[in-house]
Amino acid sequence: MSVLVGVIMGSKSDWETMKHACDMLEELGVPYEKQVVSAHRTPDLMFEYAASAAERGLKVIIAGAGGAAHLPGMVAAKTELPVIGVPVKTSTLNGMDSLLSIVQMPGGIPVATVAIGHAGATNAGLLAAQILGAFDPQLQSKVRDRRERIRQSVIESSVLE
Length: 161
Ligand SMILES: Nc1c(C(=O)O)ncn1[C@@H]1O[C@H](COP(=O)(O)O)[C@@H](O)[C@H]1O
Hints:
Blueprint: E1 5-9, H1 15-27, E2 32-36, H2 43-53, E3 60-66, H3 71-77, E4 83-88, H4 96-103, E5 112-113, H5 118-133, H6 137-156
Parallel strand pairs: 1-2, 1-3, 3-4, 4-5
Helix pairs in contact: 1-5, 2-3, 5-6
Residues 9-11, 13-14, 38-41, 65-71, 88 line the site of the ligand Nc1c(C(=O)O)ncn1[C@@H]1O[C@H](COP(=O)(O)O)[C@@H](O)[C@H]1O.
Pathway: Purine metabolism; IMP biosynthesis via de novo pathway; 5-amino-1-(5-phospho-D-ribosyl)imidazole-4-carboxylate from 5-amino-1-(5-phospho-D-ribosyl)imidazole (N5-CAIR route): step 2/2
Pfam family, one: AIRC
Organism: Paenibacillus konkukensis
């Protein structure tokens, strides 16, 4: 099956966080690719990646970055595909810098921003699957089954001894 989701990150050091998005895509059987692309350090590659993503068949892009996290917004500026931004936690400002850099997009160029760090990356993978699931009943049913398992496990552990 062709690759549907592009998972990109500003640096190899973001992998620790971004692997959680990939884990979720794998769990749900969504074909994806992963790559380091930086708006700051490899601007031409970033432009090329974003500009060609739709014609290469990608449907959703997940972009994670830390600090002055311009990657998700700049990618969103160069593609009409939905972009999900993952703020990577930083040692200096705990990821608040990443979050604020990603979330405050100007009108007309949206980035769907998730929470800071690992949990946000997991949700980014899930959100990408849910977007694709709107056009793919089989994938949507996998998401539904996953939610049911979560619901069951919360109910099972809801009685405190
Ligand atoms: N925020 C960005 C961008 C970008 O937005 O284009 N490129 C790299 N970075 C971030 O710099 C941090 C430190 O990177 P290094 O660990 O390589 O020094 C990473 O979290 C990366 O996402």
